[in-house]
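Side project, low priority. Logging it here so it doesn't get lost.
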Amino acid sequence: MSIRSATRWTAAALSVAWIVTILPALPPPLGAQFPRLFGQLPDWRDRFVSGAALAGQILAGVCWSVGMLVSGAYRRPGFWSGALPLSTQVWASDTLEWGRMLGIVVAAAIPTWIFWLLLSGGAQGGGSRRLRVRKVVGATLERARANPGRYLILLAVLSLAPVATRLIDALAGRTGLSVLLIVLMEATLAIPTGMLSYSIGLSMFDVRHAAETDPSGRSRRVKRFALTSAIVGVGGFVGTLLLIVPGIVWMTTMGFAPLVVIAEDCGTRRALARSAELTSGVRKVLVALWTGMGALTGLLVAAGSRGSLLGWATAVALGPCALLVQVACYRELAARATDATPPPVAPATDPALVVASGWSLVLLCAFAIGVGRDLLHPGPSALMLPPARGSGTDTSAPLSEWCPYSFHARAKECQLAIGNAFRSHVSSTNGFGYTGAQCVPLAEAVAPREAALTRAADVLERALGRRGRLVRQRTIAGLTVDLAVLAPAAGDDSVLLALDVGEDSSDRVVNTRTRRLATAGVPEYWRIELHPSRDVLSIDSVRTWQQPDAASGQYFLVSGSSRNPDTSLKPVSFPGVAIPIDDLLAAPCGEARAKRATHEDRPVGAALCSGLSFPLGGAPGPTIVFSDVGRDGVATRLLFTGVSTRPSTPFDPTVNGLAIQIGGPFFGETVLETLLPAGASWSRPDESSWTYRDPEGRSSGITEVAVHSAEAERLAWEIRGERGRYRASLDEMRQWGSLAVRLRAGTGSTEPCGSVFFRTAAEVGTCHGELPGTVRCVAPDRLYACSSRDPDARLRCTLQEVAHAEDVFFATHGRFFSGKCEDLLETALPPPLMCTVMGAGSVFTAVANDPRATMGCKWDSAPKAGAPPMTCS
């Protein structure tokens, strides 16, 4: 056995020893339950694998971040606040996990390649020739200076490829070309570009090649060049997959093959053998040269892509140098080789190479299986929430009674949604809890699109009655819509309203459908857009298109809204019909809750005093007064008075008791929360009166409650506390923004019987310290009408009316209205006056415009210090 053969077998033995040593420490799916040869306790192998996994995760994280920067995703709303779509979060998690696995794969395989390189001569090859890099670079620069015209032509040819690639990508974005077709187009363009570039480079070094001496063989050379380039490229790709080192060796050894096809007019096999012959003995130098040039090329590409003037100037000056350096190396190496050199003899099988390649293939197959399992079997799932029972959830209930809260394309997204809910301390929604929630296969849950379509059909049928005919799957101008409302007369098939339910809200899909419907003259189109995953940034909504123009294929009036209890849709073909948008968009778990309530023979949301409210106007407004407020901001007396409607369900606090809650909108802002239990403290003087007396104030200091009949089927309330301690600091209340008084009947009810809300913010609040030691909150009085006819004065008057209406709305709902001003005012505005209002939290903004006016006006409920709430310009 020769020394060379012995070193090869030694490298193979060391590689096998490494594999046997590291294999038990690899995690699934890379490793299996192999016995550890040196004990079961963690040792250096576990630390080695953990370090490799961490390095892989860091590299994957860097790649992910670069991808976010390049794609511009960091500019999207919610990116920096962490409110990312679930799909983005899962892909980021998968990227880190794949990076971890790939780091382990590389670390486990690299030592075998190192043994092959060091002991088996993988990088060097035979021969002892030298390649002088300085001479090659000097020859390249000298040829570029001597042939400026050809240099510019070469630059133009090399610049053609990226320009054409961008054009192809742009065309693909508009026409929807397949990825395979794009790759074939770009590869077809690369073949003539590469051949022409090599021909120009050879001519600059005065090398007579076959393209000049034998023009008739052009088609043959194109086929050979394409085949050779494909073999070299695929070999480099496969070698890179075999953990980089084989790819570097292959590209260094065979990199001259395409150039040899052009220069020597030979076949693919001869070109590959000739390239191996030329690089024998100089591969280490070539690796260093190509690495340096690759780094320089990367810098040039990065600088040019960022629009740097210096980067573009450098690219123009040095862009073709890489090709010229390759031609110079070929010329130098070919000059040293003699024509008498016999073709290289195929070397004997290298056992170290076999072991390294086989081990790398095994690791890569395991890695591919793990990644493929994630990609090919995503496991579409539905997040099912069990019904709430008391303070917990009933996980023993049948799955049909659970709520299909959200739907996810991947099982990992579903699991992440559960984790996010617990991290955000969300325990329940609409009567269903997250404790015990499960991710079930999507086939076991009702498809959200079908459920939404059935809901929309029911809503339209109830709202329109016999005023229109509802048809499913109607074809209009070659386009099929989910629902269509036709004229009521038999035989009249004119479409009055078209409706679609979709989970794809991309502009390409929507614009195509609206353009065809507008061209067909459909007067109105509604689209319910579902986002079944219920991401923070993607919520269900309804978009509407009205006033079509058949000539341009466009609708002139486009609007939309998500769930909003204040917004209704008014079909243009059905005057007087208003469909609340919340009827079309189901609340999370709303339908499941209704189904559950039906089984329990109890109306959804029914309280023991449904229908009780504190209306404003026509009666003294609700008032709460805190007295004897000390320096610590604590009052010892309170008095609440108000007039409410009479409940529509039986109401008897002598049987059920009465719960009272007073406080701010958030947890920890409680003033009073107590239950006045049924019993001897309650009395009922007549059928419509109830009285509670407790001189000792054993329930949070409440000493008296009086409820008696008032005019117009109403009830007058008086709740008095004489022996309590109540938070009544006006400064603290102003920080809360609002103060609510809520009444509930007994312990078995969770729905408020009646509520009233007082704004407490400074300057705009309804709470004031009129007398020392007293805080008084009064709900706003009745509405007033705007009667001015001058357009400018009408704008101001309308906004004042809207602002007052918002105060009244807040007092009864605890929030501000959002939508059209006429819906808030419950009256039509004189055309062409347009007014909208947007409420958010404890503030609102209203905007009014009139083409006849000389200005537009805006009302801001929270203006800057010293600024008026209304501004006109």
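Brief comment: Residues 123-128, 600-607 have pLDDT under 50 and may be disordered.
Revisit when time allows.
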